[in-house]
Design brief:
Blueprint (H helix, E strand, L loop, with lengths): L20 H8 L3 E5 L2 E4 L1 H20 L3 E2 L5 E3 H7 L1 H4 L5 E4 L5 E4 L4 H11 L8 E10 L14 E11 L2 H21 L4 E5 L8 E9 L5 E6 L5 E3 L20 E4 L6 H8 L7 E8 L2 E8 L6 H7 L5 E3 L2 H8 L15 E5 L8 E4 L5 E6 L1 H4 L4 E3 L17 E16 L1 H6 L2 E3 L5 E3 L1 E8 H11 L1 E2 L2 E2 L10 E5 L5 H16 L4 E4 L5 H11 L3 E5 L7 E6 L5 E5 L3 H13 L1
Parallel strand pairs: 3-7, 15-17, 17-20, 27-28, 27-29
Antiparallel strand pairs: 1-2, 4-6, 5-6, 7-8, 8-24, 9-10, 10-21, 11-12, 11-21, 13-19, 14-15, 14-16, 18-19, 21-24, 22-23, 25-26, 29-30, 30-31
Helix pairs in contact: 1-12, 2-6, 2-12
Amino acid sequence: MRQKTFLVPTLRDVPSDADVISHQLMLRAGMIRQTAAGVYTYLPLAKRVIAKVESIVREELEAVGAQELTLPSLHPAELWQETGRWDKMGDELIRLQDRHGRDFALGPTHEEVITSIIRDAIGSYKKLPLNVFQIQTKFRDERRPRFGLLRGREFIMKDAYSFHDTEESLDETYQAMYKAYERIFTRVGLTFRAVIADSGAMGGKDTFEFMALAEVGEDTIAYSDSSSYAANLEMATSVRVTTRSEETSQPLSSAKVNAAASIQEAAQQLEWPLSRTVQVLAVKIDEELALLLLRADHELNEIKSLHELHAKSLTVLGEHEIKEQFKVEAGQLTALGNTSLKIYADYALEGQSGFLMNSSTADECAIQVDLNRDLTIESYVDLRLVQEGDPSPDGEGTIQFARGIEIGQVFKLGTFYSDSMGASFLDQNGRANPFKMGCYGIGVSRTVAAIIEQHHDDNGIVWPIAVAPFQLHLLTLNSKNEEQATLSEQVYSSLKKDGWDVLYDDRPERAGVKFKDADLIGIPLRVSVGKRADEGFLELKVRSTGESIDVHVDDLAETLQSKLQELSN
C-alpha cells in the first residue's frame, strides 16, 4: 500500500478531548475520527487492525466448533418484552419506531433474537449441542461515552450463543470457549486475567470476565499474589473466620459523644479503633426493611450482598428515608433494641465482642457490644468489599488490586431465555425441555484500544506483530533522490512478491516527518532507504526494541524473515 494515497491523517498535537492513551494515539495515528459522542469512523489503518483481531477470533472459535452467522441489528420490541428486558435495560436501549408506529431497538446484544430463531429451527436433542457466533456492530446509549473506543455508543463485538440438552454439555462448551478466549487474548498480545464476575442484566451464573490489565481500566481486579485466584472487586469473596474472640465479654455500657454525624466520627472522639466499631445500614431487601452490620472500616459490597442474601433487589436507604422510617438521623441509626427487623452481620463481626455502636440516645454510644448477646442476628454473610492484604479465598497468598479493561465475558445463562421465550426441544423420551444456554462475548473494538494501552511508548503505538496493520513500513527518505527512489521501488516490488504486508511511504515529505509518523503508527519492522542507497544498503529497525542494523538489499529477505520469527515467538 502506497502511503501517498493511503488515508492516514496523522496529527502532531494531542487532541484536548482525548483523556486516555489509546484514544489519543488512535486519533493522532489517523485510525479513527469522532462522528458524534461515543460514535467513531474507523479509518483504513484501524480497519486493518480490526480485521486481524477478527481473523484470530474466527480461527479460535471455529476450532472449537462454533459457526458464524449474522443476526439483524434492528430488533422488534416484542422479543425483548418476552424476557422483560425491554424495561429492565432502561435508557441504555436505543429505541425507535418504524413508519407504522411499531417499536424497535438497535441491538446491544442478541440473546432474544437468537433464542427466537433456535426455538423455530431446532426441535430435537439430536441437533444439539449448537454453538453460533457473529461479529457485528452493537449499540448502547451510554450516559457518559468516554475514553474513545473503551466506552462508546456504537462498538464492534463478537457474541456467541450455545444451546444444550444437558448441564454436562453446557459445561463442556463453556470450558472450550473459556480456553479459546485465553488463546485469543494471548495471540493478540494482551496481558490479561480471567476474573469471577457478576452477570448483571444478562442473567445466568458461573460468569468470568477477561480483563486486560491497564491503569486506565474502569474495573478493579482483586487477585491473589500467590495463585490464579482473581475476581472483579464486586464479586471477590472474604474469608470467613469463625473463631470466637478469646477476650471476656464485658458488660454493655455507654459513653458520651458530642453530636457526632456518624459512628466513624464518634469512634474518633472516643479514640476507639474503627476495627472494633460497628456501622449500621438500613436497607430494603426485596422491599422488606432490614439492617446490615459491618465494621466501620469496611465498605458494603452491594452486588455481592445481593447474591449472598438471595435477593432480587437491595436498596440502601438514604438520610431522608432513615429519618422517616426510624425517626432518627442517619448518623444515629442503631441495631440495639430492634425487635422487628431482620439483622444480617458481616463475616468479620462473627464471634467477636467489645464493639462500639450507636445507641438509641443521640449524644451517647454503646460500648462493649457483644453481637450474640445484645442482638438477634439472622445470619452472618459476606457483605463487604475486600481490601488489599486480605487473605485470598483459596487459602494461597493475599489479595492485591489492579485495574483492568473488560475485553470479554463468558456466561452460563441456564434456561432464563428459553423459559421466558418458550424455546424447547424434545428429549430422548419425547418430553419437551427448555434449552440450556451459554453466552460468550468479546469487545473487538475495545480489544484494539486495550492493545494500545498496553503496547505504546512516548513516540506512539508499538503493535504486536499478530495484529499490526502492516508487517513492515518501507520509507524513502528522499523521494527526489533518483537512486533512493529506484531502490525503494525495487524493494517494494520484491517484498510484495514475497508476500509481505507493506506500507510504502513514498510521500514527498522530509525524512523527519516520515520517521515521526512511522513511530506514531507503530508498524513492527521499518526499512529505510537513505544515503547508502547507491551501495545497496538499507536500515532495518525493530519498533519494539529500537534495534537498528544496516542490511544489504541482497540479504534483506533473509534478515526480515529472521526478525519476523523473533517477533512472532
